[in-house]
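Anyone up for a design puzzle?
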């Protein structure tokens, strides 16, 4: 049951690590089971699915967006989410900043680092992220809250350790180089159902878990 799965995760996760329930591809009925068990933070990866689910869920749900976000879909996402975890290009960051300016809202985001070996994954390089941080801190309507990343899809824990170690090192380096961001640049979103314990060892402040809560995707 969803409630049992959540209870187990709540017991295992250290205090200070936020559980983000990845609810994509699961029906609202399953999300409500999680809500009734105490879960309040949910993540979606498709704008249309998010827009459908938001009005069907209680108003105190905190929504995160974790998928590739096209600039022509911002209006389906930004009015509803607390955090865009998957900003993967300067073009998208600038579009979010413009949307925020036009709508009078500051948008919290994470910059996505391309960690895994797969060429198809989206995201910035480490050098690009450092450049963006240095040049974008003055943007008025985007608040960069931290970094997000996914480890290489492998059962080799040494590879996963190395990937998460890289992003942890980058996160700490940015905080050291930019003391002006000390109060806002605080989030490290790494770790999913298969590797979250490793992510926690590398300083994760958020873990994105779907299968271990909801089971296999239903559609």
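Challenge accepted. My sequence:
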């Amino acid at each position: 049951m969803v409630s049992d799965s959540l209870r187990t995760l709540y017991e295992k996760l250290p205090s200070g690590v936020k559980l983000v329930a990845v609810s994509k591809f699961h029906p609202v009925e399953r999300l409500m089971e999680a809500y009734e068990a105490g879960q309040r933070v949910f993540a979606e990866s498709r704008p249309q699915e998010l827009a459908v689910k938001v009005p069907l869920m209680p108003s105190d749900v905190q929504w995160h967006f974790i998928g590739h976000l096209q600039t022509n879909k911002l209006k389906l996402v930004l009015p509803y989410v607390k955090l865009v975890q998957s900003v993967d290009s300067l073009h998208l960051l600038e579009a979010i900043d413009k949307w925020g300016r036009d709508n009078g809202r500051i948008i919290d985001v994470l910059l996505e680092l391309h960690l895994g070996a797969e060429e198809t994954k989206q995201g910035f390089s480490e050098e690009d992220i450092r450049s963006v941080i240095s040049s974008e801190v003055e943007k008025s309507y985007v608040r960069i809250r931290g970094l997000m990343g996914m480890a290489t899809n492998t059962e080799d824990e040494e590879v996963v350790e190395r990937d998460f170690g890289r992003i942890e090192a980058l996160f700490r380096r940015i905080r050291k180089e930019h003391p002006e961001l000390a109060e806002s640049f605080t989030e490290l979103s790494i770790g999913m159902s298969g590797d979250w314990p490793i992510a926690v060892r590398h300083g994760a402040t958020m873990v994105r878990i779907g299968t271990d809560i909801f089971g296999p995707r239903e559609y």
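A detail worth pointing out: The chain is about 40% helix and 20% strand.
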